[in-house]
Amino acid sequence: MSKNFLRFEMHTHTSESSPCGEITAKTLVETYHKLGYDGLIITDHFRPKFFDQYGHLPWVEQMAIYREGGRQAAYWGEKLGLKIFWGLEIRFSDVAAGDSRVNDYLVYGITEEELLAMPELAHQTLRGFSALARKMGWLFLQAHPCRSPYSNEDEGCHIVDPTLLDGIEVLNAHPVHLSNNEKAAQEKARNPQWLTVMGSDAHFVAGCGLAHMDYQAPVNSITDIVKQIRAQRQE
Ligand SMILES: [Zn+2]
Ligand SMILES: [Zn+2]
Asked: Using one digit for the tens of pLDDT, what is the confidence trace for 161-202?
């Protein structure tokens, strides 16, 4: 019997492509398979610093390194019957528009072809990317927008100009970071036009499966998911 709703994880990292990832794509997919999810979205960190260390390589090769975790996950997803899509957790190279040095943003609906054609995305500004996301139809949400600082050098996350965002990750279930989800919920209440997602921000096995989103079947691509998130505005 086919299911009416499919369960997805919206926010995951792999050790192949995220420097802070402690779980291989294979183990990540196996873990979500055991937890009964129907699919997950790989959102490895897409940061200026990551690409700077490979700056001597052509963009296509930099992207191959960045995409390795996603590629491995797709392979294991195919084997185990999980739908694997991918997005970005992007950080910008500016601190304008109220952006913090450690603010992160989730992007859904961007394709590998689009990324390959735009090497400038590795060093984008918040305002520049926001405008581009609108033009391209990508969903652009601030991740864990109220997260507390976690070291002396870290200033924590700050919500930026709300008009630059499609919405926020209203619940981030990372078990180590202090996400202050109740503050994020208050921010959402102040900005009712925002779309919302929830995610585990999985970096290791114990951090998997702490949040989920259910989507109406069929879900055959990330585009189907983006459409259903956008439909929150009509509810
Ligand atoms: Zn991370
Ligand atoms: Zn993350």
From this structure: 999 999 999 999 999 999 999 999 999 999 999 999 999 999
Q: Cα(22) to centroid of ligand 2, in Å?
A: 12
What's the CA-to-centroid distance between 51 and ligand 1, angstroms?
15
Query: What DSSP state is assigned to residue 45?
Result: E
For domain 5-234, give its CATH number from 3.30.1300.10, 2.120.10.30, 3.20.10.10, 3.20.20.140. 3.20.20.140
CA of 169 to the centre of ligand 1 (A): 15
Q: What is the pLDDT of residues 17-32, one digit of tens each?
A: 999 999 999 999 999 9
In the chain, where are the structural domains located?
5-234
- d(Cα 189, Cα 6) in Å, to the nearest integer? 27
Q: Which residues surround ligand 1, an ion (CB under 5 A)?
A: 20
Tell me, in angstroms, the distance from the centre of ligand 1 to residue 137's CA: 25
pTM for the full predicted model: 0.96
Q: Are strands 105-108 and 139-142 parallel, antiparallel or unpaired?
A: antiparallel
